[in-house]
Amino acid sequence: MSAVRAAARLSVAPMMEWTTPHCRFFHRLLTRHALLYTEMVTAPAVVHGDRKRLLGYSPEEHPVALQLGGSDPVLLAEAVRIACGFGYDEINLNVGCPSDRVQNGSFGACLMREPELVARCVEAMAVASNAQGGPEITVKCRIGVDDQVPAVALRDFIATVSGAGVSRFAVHARMAWLQGLSPKENRTIPPLDYDLVRQVRAENPSLHISLNGGIDTIDAVVAHLDDGFDGVMIGRAAYHDPVRMLGQVDQRVFGAPARNINARDIIEAMVEYAARSDAPVKAIGRHMLGMFGGQHGAKIWRRTLSETMHLPEAGPHTLINAYEAMNRRAVVHA
Ligand SMILES: Cc1cc2nc3c(=O)[nH]c(=O)nc-3n(C[C@H](O)[C@H](O)[C@H](O)COP(=O)(O)O)c2cc1C
Q1: What are the backbone angles phi and psi of residue 233, rounded to the nearest 5°?
Q2: CA–CA separation, 239 vs 15, rounded Å?
Q3: What is the mean pLDDT of residues 250-274?
Q4: Is the Cβ atom of 143 under 6 angstroms away from ligand 1?
Q5: Residues 285-307: tens digit of each pLDDT
Q6: Does the beta carbon of 234 sit less than 6 angstroms from any atom of ligand 1?
Q7: What secondary structure does DSSP assign to 197-208, as a single string?
Q8: Residue with CA at minimum distance from ligand 1 atom 5
Q9: Would you say residue 332 has pLDDT above 60?
Q10: Closest Cα to atom 18 of ligand 1
Q11: Distance CA 152, CA 144 (A)
Protein backbone atom coordinates (compact mmCIF):
# COMPACT_ATOMS: atom_id res chain seq x y z
CA MET A 1 0.00 0.00 0.00
CA SER A 2 1.31 3.46 -0.84
CA ALA A 3 2.28 5.73 2.03
CA VAL A 4 -0.52 8.17 1.30
CA ARG A 5 -3.12 5.36 1.27
CA ALA A 6 -1.83 4.19 4.61
CA ALA A 7 -2.10 7.76 5.92
CA ALA A 8 -5.69 7.99 4.64
CA ARG A 9 -6.71 5.53 7.35
CA LEU A 10 -7.34 8.74 9.29
CA SER A 11 -7.59 12.09 7.57
CA VAL A 12 -8.50 15.62 8.59
CA ALA A 13 -11.11 16.93 6.16
CA PRO A 14 -10.68 19.91 3.85
CA MET A 15 -12.30 22.94 5.50
CA MET A 16 -12.35 26.42 3.94
CA GLU A 17 -10.66 29.02 6.12
CA TRP A 18 -9.92 26.39 8.73
CA THR A 19 -7.41 23.89 7.32
CA THR A 20 -4.92 26.59 6.35
CA PRO A 21 -1.18 25.88 6.35
CA HIS A 22 -1.00 27.25 9.94
CA CYS A 23 -3.72 24.88 11.09
CA ARG A 24 -2.09 21.93 9.34
CA PHE A 25 1.28 22.68 10.89
CA PHE A 26 -0.43 22.65 14.31
CA HIS A 27 -2.29 19.43 13.57
CA ARG A 28 0.92 17.81 12.40
CA LEU A 29 2.44 18.38 15.82
CA LEU A 30 -0.39 16.27 17.23
CA THR A 31 -0.24 13.44 14.70
CA ARG A 32 2.70 12.33 12.60
CA HIS A 33 0.70 9.87 10.52
CA ALA A 34 -2.74 11.24 9.61
CA LEU A 35 -3.37 12.67 6.15
CA LEU A 36 -4.11 16.41 6.20
CA TYR A 37 -6.21 18.09 3.53
CA THR A 38 -5.90 21.69 2.40
CA GLU A 39 -8.86 24.02 2.07
CA MET A 40 -10.48 23.80 -1.35
CA VAL A 41 -8.68 25.92 -3.95
CA THR A 42 -10.48 26.44 -7.25
CA ALA A 43 -8.80 25.46 -10.50
CA PRO A 44 -9.19 28.96 -12.02
CA ALA A 45 -7.58 30.49 -8.91
CA VAL A 46 -4.60 28.14 -9.24
CA VAL A 47 -4.24 28.87 -12.94
CA HIS A 48 -4.68 32.64 -12.76
CA GLY A 49 -3.91 33.55 -9.13
CA ASP A 50 -0.98 33.86 -6.76
CA ARG A 51 0.28 30.28 -6.81
CA LYS A 52 2.71 30.57 -3.97
CA ARG A 53 0.05 31.99 -1.65
CA LEU A 54 -2.60 29.47 -2.71
CA LEU A 55 -0.45 26.35 -2.86
CA GLY A 56 2.57 26.99 -0.63
CA TYR A 57 2.98 25.01 2.60
CA SER A 58 5.66 23.88 5.05
CA PRO A 59 7.49 20.61 4.35
CA GLU A 60 6.59 19.42 7.87
CA GLU A 61 2.92 19.13 6.82
CA HIS A 62 3.43 15.92 4.79
CA PRO A 63 1.48 13.79 4.08
CA VAL A 64 -0.75 16.53 2.72
CA ALA A 65 -3.48 16.42 0.07
CA LEU A 66 -4.54 19.38 -2.06
CA GLN A 67 -8.25 19.73 -2.70
CA LEU A 68 -9.24 21.36 -5.98
CA GLY A 69 -12.64 22.68 -7.00
CA GLY A 70 -13.73 22.90 -10.61
CA SER A 71 -15.64 21.22 -13.40
CA ASP A 72 -13.66 22.14 -16.50
CA PRO A 73 -11.33 19.25 -17.40
CA VAL A 74 -8.88 21.54 -19.19
CA LEU A 75 -8.60 24.00 -16.30
CA LEU A 76 -8.42 21.20 -13.73
CA ALA A 77 -5.64 19.49 -15.70
CA GLU A 78 -3.73 22.76 -15.86
CA ALA A 79 -4.23 23.28 -12.10
CA VAL A 80 -2.91 19.76 -11.47
CA ARG A 81 0.12 20.41 -13.67
CA ILE A 82 0.90 23.53 -11.62
CA ALA A 83 0.18 21.85 -8.28
CA CYS A 84 2.51 18.95 -9.12
CA GLY A 85 5.40 21.38 -8.76
CA PHE A 86 4.45 21.85 -5.10
CA GLY A 87 4.90 18.19 -4.15
CA TYR A 88 1.48 17.33 -2.73
CA ASP A 89 0.94 13.68 -1.78
CA GLU A 90 -2.56 13.55 -3.32
CA ILE A 91 -4.85 15.81 -5.33
CA ASN A 92 -8.54 15.55 -4.54
CA LEU A 93 -11.56 16.84 -6.46
CA ASN A 94 -14.37 18.43 -4.44
CA VAL A 95 -17.79 16.97 -5.27
CA GLY A 96 -19.33 17.84 -1.93
CA CYS A 97 -19.41 21.56 -1.27
CA PRO A 98 -22.95 22.97 -1.41
CA SER A 99 -22.39 26.75 -1.22
CA ASP A 100 -24.10 29.10 -3.72
CA ARG A 101 -20.76 30.44 -4.87
CA VAL A 102 -19.69 26.93 -5.74
CA GLN A 103 -23.01 26.09 -7.41
CA ASN A 104 -22.74 29.20 -9.57
CA GLY A 105 -19.40 27.92 -10.72
CA SER A 106 -21.20 24.59 -11.37
CA PHE A 107 -18.92 22.47 -9.27
CA GLY A 108 -18.87 20.99 -5.78
CA ALA A 109 -21.89 18.94 -4.70
CA CYS A 110 -23.96 19.69 -7.82
CA LEU A 111 -21.50 17.48 -9.74
CA MET A 112 -23.16 14.48 -8.03
CA ARG A 113 -25.68 14.89 -10.88
CA GLU A 114 -22.97 14.72 -13.51
CA PRO A 115 -20.81 11.65 -12.96
CA GLU A 116 -19.80 11.58 -16.66
CA LEU A 117 -18.42 15.10 -16.40
CA VAL A 118 -16.59 14.18 -13.17
CA ALA A 119 -15.16 11.17 -15.02
CA ARG A 120 -13.79 13.45 -17.76
CA CYS A 121 -12.35 15.80 -15.12
CA VAL A 122 -10.54 13.08 -13.18
CA GLU A 123 -9.23 11.48 -16.38
CA ALA A 124 -7.74 14.82 -17.46
CA MET A 125 -6.35 15.38 -13.96
CA ALA A 126 -4.74 11.93 -13.91
CA VAL A 127 -3.13 12.41 -17.33
CA ALA A 128 -1.68 15.74 -16.15
CA SER A 129 -0.46 14.25 -12.88
CA ASN A 130 1.06 11.14 -14.49
CA ALA A 131 2.91 13.28 -17.03
CA GLN A 132 4.64 15.08 -14.15
CA GLY A 133 5.22 11.98 -12.03
CA GLY A 134 2.59 13.52 -9.72
CA PRO A 135 0.28 12.06 -7.09
CA GLU A 136 -2.93 10.03 -7.11
CA ILE A 137 -6.20 11.79 -7.98
CA THR A 138 -9.03 11.13 -5.52
CA VAL A 139 -12.60 12.37 -5.06
CA LYS A 140 -14.59 13.60 -2.06
CA CYS A 141 -18.33 13.37 -2.58
CA ARG A 142 -21.77 13.27 -0.93
CA ILE A 143 -24.28 10.43 -1.19
CA GLY A 144 -26.56 12.51 -3.43
CA VAL A 145 -28.19 15.89 -3.88
CA ASP A 146 -31.77 17.21 -3.75
CA ASP A 147 -34.27 14.70 -5.17
CA GLN A 148 -31.70 12.03 -6.03
CA VAL A 149 -32.16 8.62 -4.41
CA PRO A 150 -28.86 8.13 -2.57
CA ALA A 151 -28.78 4.35 -2.99
CA VAL A 152 -28.90 4.90 -6.75
CA ALA A 153 -26.97 8.17 -7.04
CA LEU A 154 -23.98 7.11 -4.95
CA ARG A 155 -23.67 3.74 -6.72
CA ASP A 156 -23.88 5.36 -10.18
CA PHE A 157 -21.41 8.02 -9.21
CA ILE A 158 -18.85 5.62 -7.76
CA ALA A 159 -19.22 3.20 -10.72
CA THR A 160 -18.71 5.92 -13.33
CA VAL A 161 -15.90 7.77 -11.57
CA SER A 162 -14.03 4.62 -10.57
CA GLY A 163 -14.44 3.48 -14.19
CA ALA A 164 -12.43 6.59 -15.10
CA GLY A 165 -9.58 5.42 -12.90
CA VAL A 166 -10.25 6.86 -9.42
CA SER A 167 -9.79 4.20 -6.77
CA ARG A 168 -9.95 6.26 -3.58
CA PHE A 169 -12.98 8.20 -2.36
CA ALA A 170 -13.98 10.06 0.78
CA VAL A 171 -17.75 10.02 1.18
CA HIS A 172 -19.57 12.55 3.36
CA ALA A 173 -22.42 10.25 4.29
CA ARG A 174 -25.30 12.70 3.88
CA MET A 175 -27.08 14.30 0.98
CA ALA A 176 -26.66 17.96 0.13
CA TRP A 177 -29.94 19.79 -0.30
CA LEU A 178 -28.92 22.55 -2.65
CA GLN A 179 -32.19 24.48 -2.49
CA GLY A 180 -33.03 26.13 0.80
CA LEU A 181 -30.23 25.04 3.15
CA SER A 182 -27.08 26.97 3.98
CA PRO A 183 -23.73 25.18 3.75
CA LYS A 184 -23.73 24.96 7.54
CA GLU A 185 -27.22 23.43 7.61
CA ASN A 186 -26.08 21.04 4.89
CA ARG A 187 -23.54 19.67 7.36
CA THR A 188 -26.15 18.93 10.03
CA ILE A 189 -29.72 18.61 8.70
CA PRO A 190 -29.68 15.92 5.98
CA PRO A 191 -29.43 12.66 7.93
CA LEU A 192 -26.27 10.58 7.97
CA ASP A 193 -26.45 7.22 6.22
CA TYR A 194 -23.36 5.25 7.18
CA ASP A 195 -25.04 1.97 6.20
CA LEU A 196 -25.32 2.98 2.57
CA VAL A 197 -21.64 3.92 2.41
CA ARG A 198 -20.75 0.65 4.15
CA GLN A 199 -22.77 -1.33 1.57
CA VAL A 200 -21.18 0.52 -1.34
CA ARG A 201 -17.77 -0.12 0.18
CA ALA A 202 -18.54 -3.85 0.49
CA GLU A 203 -19.73 -3.97 -3.15
CA ASN A 204 -16.45 -2.39 -4.32
CA PRO A 205 -13.68 -4.27 -2.54
CA SER A 206 -10.98 -2.91 -4.86
CA LEU A 207 -11.73 0.69 -3.89
CA HIS A 208 -10.44 2.57 -0.86
CA ILE A 209 -13.36 4.35 0.79
CA SER A 210 -13.12 6.74 3.72
CA LEU A 211 -16.21 7.51 5.73
CA ASN A 212 -16.89 11.15 6.65
CA GLY A 213 -19.58 13.01 8.57
CA GLY A 214 -20.41 13.43 12.23
CA ILE A 215 -17.58 11.28 13.62
CA ASP A 216 -16.45 12.92 16.82
CA THR A 217 -14.65 10.41 19.04
CA ILE A 218 -11.60 8.21 18.53
CA ASP A 219 -13.65 5.23 19.69
CA ALA A 220 -16.05 5.87 16.81
CA VAL A 221 -13.12 6.18 14.37
CA VAL A 222 -11.76 2.82 15.50
CA ALA A 223 -15.23 1.22 15.36
CA HIS A 224 -15.76 2.36 11.74
CA LEU A 225 -12.33 1.03 10.76
CA ASP A 226 -13.11 -2.28 12.47
CA ASP A 227 -16.38 -2.27 10.55
CA GLY A 228 -14.56 -2.46 7.23
CA PHE A 229 -13.98 1.12 6.15
CA ASP A 230 -10.55 1.72 4.68
CA GLY A 231 -10.35 5.15 6.22
CA VAL A 232 -12.17 7.70 8.33
CA MET A 233 -12.16 11.43 7.66
CA ILE A 234 -12.88 13.85 10.48
CA GLY A 235 -13.64 17.54 10.09
CA ARG A 236 -15.21 19.71 12.75
CA ALA A 237 -14.30 17.54 15.72
CA ALA A 238 -10.61 17.63 14.74
CA TYR A 239 -10.74 21.39 14.41
CA HIS A 240 -12.67 22.18 17.57
CA ASP A 241 -11.03 19.61 19.81
CA PRO A 242 -7.68 18.89 18.19
CA VAL A 243 -5.76 17.40 21.10
CA ARG A 244 -8.47 14.93 22.04
CA MET A 245 -9.18 13.94 18.44
CA LEU A 246 -5.66 13.88 17.00
CA GLY A 247 -3.39 13.39 20.00
CA GLN A 248 -4.07 9.65 20.22
CA VAL A 249 -4.50 8.65 16.60
CA ASP A 250 -0.89 7.69 15.94
CA GLN A 251 -1.15 5.10 18.64
CA ARG A 252 -4.76 4.00 18.30
CA VAL A 253 -5.25 4.18 14.54
CA PHE A 254 -1.74 3.70 13.15
CA GLY A 255 -0.34 1.39 15.82
CA ALA A 256 2.65 3.66 16.42
CA PRO A 257 4.38 3.62 19.80
CA ALA A 258 2.88 5.96 22.40
CA ARG A 259 4.30 9.47 22.28
CA ASN A 260 4.18 11.74 25.26
CA ILE A 261 2.68 14.86 23.76
CA ASN A 262 3.38 17.72 26.06
CA ALA A 263 1.24 20.86 25.68
CA ARG A 264 4.13 23.17 26.43
CA ASP A 265 6.30 21.58 23.70
CA ILE A 266 3.49 22.04 21.21
CA ILE A 267 3.01 25.66 22.13
CA GLU A 268 6.75 26.29 21.96
CA ALA A 269 6.88 24.70 18.51
CA MET A 270 4.02 26.99 17.46
CA VAL A 271 5.87 30.02 18.88
CA GLU A 272 8.89 29.10 16.74
CA TYR A 273 6.64 28.60 13.74
CA ALA A 274 4.95 31.98 14.33
CA ALA A 275 8.36 33.65 14.65
CA ARG A 276 9.46 32.44 11.22
CA SER A 277 6.07 33.04 9.57
CA ASP A 278 5.05 36.31 7.87
CA ALA A 279 1.53 35.90 9.26
CA PRO A 280 0.19 37.82 12.27
CA VAL A 281 -0.11 35.62 15.34
CA LYS A 282 -3.92 35.88 15.29
CA ALA A 283 -3.92 34.00 11.95
CA ILE A 284 -2.06 31.17 13.68
CA GLY A 285 -3.51 31.30 17.19
CA ARG A 286 -7.13 31.13 16.01
CA HIS A 287 -6.62 27.48 15.07
CA MET A 288 -5.35 26.72 18.57
CA LEU A 289 -8.29 28.06 20.58
CA GLY A 290 -9.71 24.56 21.09
CA MET A 291 -6.41 23.11 22.20
CA PHE A 292 -7.37 22.46 25.81
CA GLY A 293 -10.98 21.43 25.11
CA GLY A 294 -12.56 19.75 28.10
CA GLN A 295 -9.50 20.25 30.31
CA HIS A 296 -9.18 22.32 33.42
CA GLY A 297 -8.30 25.91 32.43
CA ALA A 298 -9.56 25.57 28.83
CA LYS A 299 -11.79 28.63 29.16
CA ILE A 300 -8.95 30.77 30.49
CA TRP A 301 -6.73 29.72 27.59
CA ARG A 302 -9.44 30.43 25.02
CA ARG A 303 -10.38 33.77 26.53
CA THR A 304 -6.82 35.00 27.13
CA LEU A 305 -5.64 33.98 23.68
CA SER A 306 -8.66 35.37 21.85
CA GLU A 307 -8.41 38.68 23.72
CA THR A 308 -4.65 39.15 23.34
CA MET A 309 -3.82 37.81 19.88
CA HIS A 310 -5.63 40.75 18.21
CA LEU A 311 -3.74 43.44 20.13
CA PRO A 312 -1.22 45.59 18.24
CA GLU A 313 1.61 44.34 20.46
CA ALA A 314 0.69 40.66 19.89
CA GLY A 315 3.47 38.42 18.61
CA PRO A 316 4.64 34.82 18.88
CA HIS A 317 5.12 35.26 22.65
CA THR A 318 1.33 35.85 22.95
CA LEU A 319 0.87 32.08 22.64
CA ILE A 320 3.16 31.22 25.51
CA ASN A 321 1.78 34.10 27.61
CA ALA A 322 -1.75 32.73 27.23
CA TYR A 323 -0.54 29.28 28.26
CA GLU A 324 1.19 30.68 31.33
CA ALA A 325 -1.87 32.76 32.23
CA MET A 326 -3.95 29.59 32.02
CA ASN A 327 -1.57 27.67 34.26
CA ARG A 328 -1.39 30.47 36.84
CA ARG A 329 -5.13 31.05 36.96
CA ALA A 330 -6.02 27.36 36.76
CA VAL A 331 -3.82 26.71 39.78
CA VAL A 332 -5.29 29.64 41.73
CA HIS A 333 -8.84 28.44 41.05
CA ALA A 334 -8.15 24.73 41.55
C1 LIG B 1 -15.83 25.48 7.99
C2 LIG B 1 -15.96 24.32 7.04
C3 LIG B 1 -15.44 24.42 5.77
C4 LIG B 1 -15.52 23.33 4.87
N5 LIG B 1 -14.91 23.44 3.65
C6 LIG B 1 -14.87 22.35 2.83
C7 LIG B 1 -14.08 22.35 1.64
O8 LIG B 1 -13.37 23.32 1.32
N9 LIG B 1 -14.12 21.22 0.87
C10 LIG B 1 -14.86 20.12 1.21
O11 LIG B 1 -14.85 19.12 0.48
N12 LIG B 1 -15.59 20.10 2.34
C13 LIG B 1 -15.59 21.17 3.16
N14 LIG B 1 -16.25 21.10 4.35
C15 LIG B 1 -16.93 19.84 4.74
C16 LIG B 1 -15.97 18.93 5.53
O17 LIG B 1 -14.86 18.56 4.75
C18 LIG B 1 -16.70 17.66 6.00
O19 LIG B 1 -17.11 16.94 4.88
C20 LIG B 1 -17.93 17.98 6.85
O21 LIG B 1 -17.64 18.96 7.84
C22 LIG B 1 -18.45 16.71 7.55
O23 LIG B 1 -17.47 16.15 8.38
P24 LIG B 1 -17.50 16.37 10.00
O25 LIG B 1 -18.88 16.02 10.45
O26 LIG B 1 -16.44 15.45 10.52
O27 LIG B 1 -17.20 17.83 10.22
C28 LIG B 1 -16.18 22.16 5.26
C29 LIG B 1 -16.70 22.06 6.56
C30 LIG B 1 -16.59 23.12 7.44
C31 LIG B 1 -17.14 22.99 8.86
Answers
A1: -115, 130
A2: 9
A3: 94
A4: no
A5: 999 999 998 888 899 999 999 99
A6: yes
A7: HHHHHHH-TTSE
A8: 15
A9: no
A10: 235
A11: 9
